[in-house]
Specification:
TransReg_Diox_bact_type, DNA-binding protein, 125 residues, mainly alpha, 7 helices, Lambda_DNA-bd_dom_sf, 434 Repressor (Amino-terminal Domain), 62% helix, Cro/C1-type_HTH, DNA-binding, 2 domains
Length: 125
């Protein structure tokens, strides 16, 4: 998600959570150690908070950081020690999956084309 969209999304979620709790911007700002105008800029999507501030916001607003960052459950492991999604794959395939995670989308698309052509190729005897 690009920076501007993430800022807007985070601000919207923070505003909705604050309103759900019946708090004013000044109250949330005070509880998180921010100046009210700084918190207002965060809610309007004009400023991305630093990680420690994001943590305090999550605690004050009663939200998990993944909600503030617009992460879906599929994008977040339930715990640090949770097995990776490919945990049951054979070792060689796990290594391949880990390698592919760092590839740009265009490169993965090209690999998919290559794999499809190999999959559809006649079997050699």
């Amino acid at each position: 998600m690009e920076y501007e969209r993430l800022s807007k999304s985070l601000g919207e979620v923070a505003r909705l959570a604050r309103e759900r709790l019946g708090l004013t911007q000044a109250q949330v700002a005070r509880q998180t150690g921010l100046a009210p105008n700084v918190y207002g800029r965060i809610e309007r999507g004009h400023m991305m908070p630093a990680v420690p501030t994001l943590r305090r916001l999550a605690m004050v607003l009663g939200l998990s950081a993944d909600v503030l960052l617009a992460l879906t459950p599929a994008q977040v492991a339930p715990a640090v020690d949770a097995p990776t999604p490919e945990g049951n794959l054979p070792p060689e395939l796990r290594r391949t999956v880990r390698m592919l995670r760092g590839w740009p989308a265009g490169r993965v698309k090209l690999l998919n084309r290559i794999l499809r052509s190999i999959e559809n190729a006649p079997e050699e005897e």
